[in-house]
Write a structure and sequence with these properties.
Elements (H helix, E strand, L loop, with lengths): L1 H17 L1 H10 L19 H5 L13 H4 L10 E21 L23 E5 L5 E3 L4 E3 L4 E9 L5 E16 L8 H4 L1 E19 L2 E20 L4 H12 L8 H4 L17 E24 L2 E8 L2 E13 L1 H10 L5 H9 L8 E12 L2 E11 L2 E10 L6 E6 L4 H6 L10 E5 L5 E13 L2 E10 L17 E11 L5 E16 L23 E19 H15 L1 H4 L4
Antiparallel strand pairs: 1-2, 1-5, 1-21, 3-4, 5-6, 6-7, 7-8, 8-9, 9-10, 9-11, 10-13, 11-12, 12-15, 13-14, 14-17, 15-16, 17-18, 18-19, 19-20, 20-21
Length: 578
């Protein structure tokens, strides 16, 4: 028997030595990064402090209560008894959008109409940087120019039980930006935008099938909120033509044509391709958007574990309000179609053109979207007791998002005119093509147990973009990102743990050359909605800084703390009567 144990121990030492190349490869992955292409920028950014520090490479070593999201089977790793976890993550996003005049852009109407884009009033390059983040705050029912990702989890496991039960809340998808400078050129693509999904309650359970295999399930009940504000303009040949004809007919009478059919000047003087036409604001939400997560965790030996999770799609039916405020120039343009003794009114009615300019339109807007299903798998290697190495692969079905479609409760004047530029979405439906692509990301993490009470962590994550170049715009300004994380965990004798993490996400330069994106800068005649930067090259710099902290403790410790605080605040304590 002693000889058998020696052989087994020697074999184990040999296995661990053979694992060293894999360990070195994992550590190298933290240093080597792929080149940017054009992230799943809003996807599981600010959920767990541990996950942030490890680059989200946690499927085979799920992070405490937030295993509810990353791999519910990992709840079986939580200690017996009742525990509470509270976390907060603060992201700070800096996105700079730089526009450069395309010297090869000949102008509109094949060069017959040329006008300087007013965003270049001070030179051939202009830029804007966001002034803050933006998020929707439930219950208060307001948006704020600040980003925060709170998380909360509670678990219970009876002594000797194979079952672990938990509940938590967190935000698996979230992003929001605001450009507060009134002269920021980004105002035509996205003065502000937010897009978030909050799981406000996710009951979960894991079951330890064998000592080495666990299964888990969580069911999330979520709220989705989405909103945007932008100044609208449409650099297009039709508007250039209206301005040319408006200028040409200013003060000119053409009897009997003008008396019978149209007032002069034509088109009320016309509109410049670079004129602001309106300001659009959307705010929508869905208060019940369910989903579920299924997880497996397998640890055949103490030095290796394998994890996998499937996260269901989240189908969302959004309902909210919109406000469109039209400029005086647009109102004059529309009024012209209703003027004249005969021709204008009849022809406008035949063509279904608006004939009376209004200062604004508002009402109810609805939309349907789907957050993608996801699958993530990974492994953990522990060649030595003090060293853990993690690696994950992640797939997300972003191709499910083919287009944005917003249904308004009335005909929208802008859309009624846009159909003459090739727009086929209808009078009361705004359609923006997206054609997102599936993403396949990877991540690597390293955790070092320096002492019994201190863990150090490092991580790297490659976050591939789901947005193709040809559909890039400033409402979905999500480039590829490199994410670097670091953090530590402190463990106290009474069962309390404190995790601290920081992360840096970066894409130093992402470019869309003039004409490459049909939602940004394409001069194609049929791309009238929505294409505000015709004649411009676009470059974006994206930097995100995150700080995160989580505290986990037994409920008994929380009770002791509550009693101590209550006693300290009691007047009886201060008078020595307690």
């Amino acid at each position: 028997m002693g000889q058998d144990r020696k052989i087994k121990r020697d074999n184990m030492h040999l296995l661990r030595l053979l694992m060293l190349p894999a360990a070195i490869a994992c550590m190298a992955a933290l240093l080597v990064r792929p080149q940017p292409t054009c992230a799943s920028f809003n996807e599981q950014m600010a959920i767990s402090t541990q996950a942030i520090s490890l680059g989200n490479a946690v499927t085979a070593r799920p992070p405490g209560h937030m295993a509810i999201h990353y791999n519910p089977a990992g709840l079986s790793l939580l200690p017996e008894g009742k525990h509470l976890g509270m976390g907060l993550t603060i992201p700070v996003i800096e996105k700079t959008s730089r526009f450069t005049k395309d010297e090869n852009f000949e102008g509109f109407l094949e060069g017959e109409y040329q006008e300087e884009d007013p965003i270049y009033a001070e030179g051939d390059t202009t830029e804007g940087t966001n002034s803050g983040g933006r998020m929707y705050v439930p219950l208060v029912d307001e948006t704020i120019d600040f980003l925060a990702g709170p998380s909360l989890g509670a678990s219970s496991r009876s002594p000797g039980s194979r079952w672990t039960f938990a509940i938590g809340n967190y935000a698996p998808f979230a992003v929001g930006l605001v450009h507060g400078d009134k002269d920021d050129p980004t105002r035509y693509g996205g003065k502000s935008v937010y897009w978030q999904h909050l799981v406000y309650a996710a009951p979960a359970a894991s079951y330890e099938v064998t000592p080495s295999l666990s299964m888990g399930l969580s069911v999330g009940m979520g709220q989705t909120a989405m909103g945007a504000e932008l100044d609208m303009r449409t650099p297009h040949d039709l508007l250039a033509l209206s301005r040319i004809l408006g200028d040409a007919t200013e003060g000119m009478m053409i009897p009997p044509f003008t008396q019978l059919y149209y007032d002069e000047p034509f088109f009320g003087g016309g509109l410049s391709p670079y004129d602001k036409l309106a300001t659009l604001q959307l705010d929508m939400r869905s208060d019940f958007s369910p989903n579920y997560n299924l997880g497996l965790l397998y640890e055949p030996w103490d030095w290796i574990s394998l994890g996998a999770v499937y996260q269901s799609p989240i189908k969302v039916y959004l309902h909210g309000s919109y406000q469109i405020d039209y400029t005086e120039g647009w109102q004059n343009f529309v009024d012209w179609f209703g003027r004249g003794p005969l021709g204008t009114r009849r022809l406008s009615a035949m063509l279904d053109l608006p004939t009376s300019g209004v200062p604004s339109q508002s009402g109810v807007v609805t939309s349907e979207i789907e957050f993608p299903q996801r699958a993530q798998m990974g492994f953990k290697l522990q060649p030595f007791e003090f060293l853990r190495l993690m690696f994950d692969l992640k797939w997300a079905d972003w191709s499910v998002l083919e287009r944005d479609k917003y249904e308004f409760d009335q005909s929208i004047q802008l859309l009624r005119v846009a159909k003459f530029g090739g727009y086929a979405g209808g009078n009361s439906t705004l359609v923006i093509e997206r054609n997102f692509e599936d993403t396949l990301d990877w991540a690597a993490g390293l955790e070092l147990s320096v002492t019994d009470w201190l863990d150090l962590r490092l991580g790297y994550e490659w976050r591939e973009s789901s947005v193709p170049d040809e559909n890039y715009d400033l409402l979905m300004a999500l480039p590829d990102l490199h994410s670097y994380g670091a953090g530590l965990g402190i463990h106290f004798a009474n069962g309390v743990s404190i995790d601290i993490a920081g992360a840096y996400l970066v894409n130093e330069s992402y470019e869309i050359k003039s004409g490459e994106s049909q939602n940004l800068n394409s001069p194609d005649f049929a791309n009238i909605v929505y294409n505000p930067y015709v004649g411009s090259d676009y470059e974006q710099e994206t930097y995100t800084y995150m700080g995160s902290i989580t505290t986990t403790m037994p409920f008994s410790v929380l009770g002791d703390m509550t009693r101590s605080i209550t006693r300290f605040l009691s007047p009886l304590h201060w008078y020595g009567l307690d």
